[in-house]
Amino acid sequence: MNVATEIRPTFDTDVRTAEPCLAVDGLDIAYGTGTPVVSDFSLTVAPGETVGLIGESGCGKSSVGLALLGLLPDSAQVSARTLDIAGQDVLGATDRDFQKLRGREIGMIFQEPMSALNPCTRIGIQIAEVLRLHGLADKKTAQARALELLQLVQVPEPELRMKQFPHQLSGGMRQRIVIAMALAARPKVLVADEPTTALDVTVQAQILRLLAQIQQDSGAGMVLISHDLGVIAETCDRVVVMYAGQIIEQGTPEAVLSAPAHPYTAGLLASIPTLAGDHAGDLPTIPGGIAAEDRARPGCRFAPRCALAGPECEAPLPLEALTGSHDVRCVKSLVPVGYSAAIDE
Ligand SMILES: Nc1ncnc2c1ncn2[C@@H]1O[C@H](COP(=O)(O)OP(=O)(O)OP(=O)(O)O)[C@@H](O)[C@H]1O
């Protein structure tokens, strides 16, 4: 049996509605009394939409994801104008409030599946527990639904897997189990933080396709955090590029990846090796790294590493619309305002 085509999701409710399932406006995050590691971050995700968050290590991607899940440490200071998950205002939500939301309204998939699984509990029981925790099923129904979910995430021999422990499964299979658990209560939003980074390349592609298919079928919105532009290009409806805690460019993958307007995005793209190997000599890299003081710069935070930087880059600058679906925060934008609209339609 071709599992991919035969097993369809059993979601009986289509959650597609006009309302965004995630609305964030003006999110700031700081650890302790330090400079904010995320500043004025805004994002809206529609049901069924996948938005990719990209940027190099330390730009604040994971902090955003953890804030959405209410999983930041106590040392973190979080403020925002709006923070709505599945239509619920979670500004000021307590740990207890977030415990009810997590799994039920917002699901999570992290890089390392073993950290999300209990090593001493059988797979079937772990999945069923998600349903029982949220009062969505009695013991017998939860077990039956756990089996369905294993079929949905295309785990071979699902009856056998129900009885196995996490260490008896491969890394790819464990990540499928985590996806099944994330989907069990049919959340309206998913946060996936580097969900395939720990897997080998062939398994990565399978898991990404599975995730995209299930997410589309369920109508959940998804924030996909990755440092891998290939992953983002393949799976996202929209891409948000972060640098030193700020959004510096956003738009459709076609626009941002084919006509990058920010020199940082252009540098990221130029540093990806191609199969054709059409780079003479070494791949170009962006010299330097994100320094803590860059996050306090009033002007462009990338300027210290930017070959195009000039005095005009020292003034504060907002995200500006280049087209209806492509914004950039750069006075030296590599593409003009209103550039060929055809490219991002
Ligand atoms: N618990 C913490 N306490 C203090 N600083 C932290 C904490 N967690 C993250 N940071 C700092 O916040 C900044 C942003 O980190 P974050 O993990 O959000 O970035 P990232 O883009 O997801 O990076 P990576 O891809 O390496 O996870 C970094 O400078 C990091 O050192």
Automatic annotation (TrEMBL):
Q: Which GO terms describe its molecular function?
A: ATP binding
Protein name listed in UniProt: ABC transporter ATP-binding protein
The UniProt keywords, alphabetically, are: ATP-binding, Cell membrane, Membrane, Nucleotide-binding, Transport
Start and end of every ABC transporter domain? 22-269
Q: What are the subcellular locations of this protein?
A: Cell membrane
**Its membrane topology, per UniProt?**
Peripheral membrane protein
Source organism:
Rhodococcus gannanensis
Short name of any one Pfam family annotated for the protein: ABC_tran
The UniProt similarity line reads: Belongs to the ABC transporter superfamily.
